[in-house]
Write a structure and sequence with these properties.
By secondary structure, this protein is of the alpha/beta class. The relative contact order is 0.12. It has helices at residues 12-17, 57-65, 71-77, 95-98, 100-110, 128-134, 150-156, 163-175, 195-204, 223-231, 235-238, 254-271, 306-309, 319-323, 331-339, 342-346, 364-368; strands at 7-9, 22-24, 27-28, 53-54, 82-84, 115-119, 139-145, 179-187, 209-214, 217-218, 243-246, 249-252, 274-276, 350-353, 358-361. The chain is globular, with a radius of gyration of 20 Å. The structure holds iron/sulfur cluster (SF4).
């Protein structure tokens, strides 16, 4: 288990793929206790749900005010948007006591720095100190919700606010000029409740972009048992979806994901909402960044990242062809990862050509049905 730093760049192949590689976690651990959370199996390094601790504000501050070198600093100088809330919710209840996120927002406001916050507690941002701290800040708030079914939501996300509370907060933030997004995440089609209603509420609150990704059931941390307890039955044995093993976790089959995401896409289209998914199995993204912030004023996601620049990979595309004209701060490291075939191991639609260190695109029909 890795102890993650409060401000960090996502690691290894992820930084080649993610258009927002710069991250902040204001807390270590998360008390929100979501049944499906991968927290115990991944990177927080302390007791997951129970050992929540504030991260060092001075550590975060130094990258903005004192440090002059390093990759983090290079990205900050490029004004690469920063994402807050990766391994813990930045506005979880402990924020009322320590206000680390409020202080981070003030640092970012001081520099008018493009910011993305991922949270289940958007209502905290509508309190007066926070509204002051986000005034004029280029800000996107992604509010995560796993289901419209309110009774089930309370069991899946026992500490998080109600759906109505989250939607009302998005409305207030949207009225204040914040870009608000619905994060239908994790998406569990047979537990998501009335999606039509959920998307309609989000739309009426000012949401234009919906981010949707399927549930990953991590093998570590007793995740499966927690989900069973929340839904009141053996979920994997009773679901109509086919789950498959994918390394650290189980996830629905490609066929299930494509079918269900196509359904969500139809619902979104009917409401004029933009649907984005990380893997883009249904081809809706058209090389927008997967967080959908690239079309907001003041936000410029990393242009070299696969989900922005990947259209350049066609047939035997070389690293030089891929990276030309981009000032990527880890050019040499990227080239080395490229030459090891890392991109193909992380992205389903690519093939690595070992003989000439190039990549080609897989026939879509073949990889979709794998
Ligand atoms: S809010 Fe996020 S990090 Fe916290 S328990 Fe829920 S899923 Fe995990």
């Amino acid at each position: 288990m890795i102890l993650q730093r409060p401000l960090f760049i996502c690691d290894h192949a992820e930084r080649l793929i993610c258009p927002l590689p710069l991250k902040i976690d204001c807390y270590r651990g998360c008390s929100t206790r979501c049944a499906y959370c991968s927290l115990n199996g991944l990177r927080t390094g302390i007791n997951g749900f129970d050992g929540v601790q504030p991260n060092s504000i001075r550590f975060i501050e130094k990258f903005f005010y004192r440090r002059k070198t390093g990759m983090e600093r290079a990205l900050i100088d490029q004004r690469s948007p920063i994402q807050i809330g990766i391994s813990s919710d930045p506005l979880q209840p402990i924020e009322k006591q320590y206000q680390v996120t409020l202080r981070v927002l003030r640092i970012l406001q001081d520099r008018q720095y493009p910011t993305v916050i991922t949270t289940k507690f958007p209502g905290q941002l509508t309190e007066s100190g926070y509204l002051g701290a986000i005034e004029g800040l280029p800000l996107a708030v992604q509010s995560s919700v796993s289901t419209q079914d309110q009774a089930l939501l309370k069991r899946l996300e026992p500490v998080a606010p109600s759906l109505q509370n989250r939607i009302a907060a998005l409305q207030t933030l949207s009225d204040a000029g914040v870009h608000v997004q619905l994060r239908l995440w994790p998406y569990i089609p047979d537990l998501a409740g009335n999606l039509d209603e959920l998307l309609g509420m989000a739309h009426d609150a000012g949401v234009k972009d919906v981010l949707c990704n399927f549930l990953k059931i991590y093998h570590a941390g007793g995740t499966c048992l927690k989900i069973n307890k929340a839904v009141g039955r053996d979920y994997l044995k009773s679901t109509c979806l086919k789950y498959r093993n994918a390394g650290l976790f189980k996830i629905a089959s490609y066929e299930d994901q494509i079918r269900e995401l196509s359904h969500v896409q139809d619902l979104c289209r009917g409401l004029g909402l933009n649907l984005l998914t990380c893997d883009d199995f249904i081809g809706t993204r058209n090389w927008q960044d997967c967080c959908g912030v690239g079309h907001y004023p003041g936000f410029e996601p990393s242009p070299w990242a696969y989900y922005v620049n990947g259209w350049r990979i066609t047939d035997h595309t070389s690293f030089q062809e891929y990276i030309s004209n981009y000032d990527c701060p880890w050019h040499d490291e990227f080239e080395s990862e490229w030459n090891k075939g890392k991109l193909a191991r992380s992205i389903s639609g690519l093939i690595f050509n070992e003989e000439d260190k190039t990549y080609s695109r897989r026939n879509e029909d073949v990889w979709r049905l794998r």
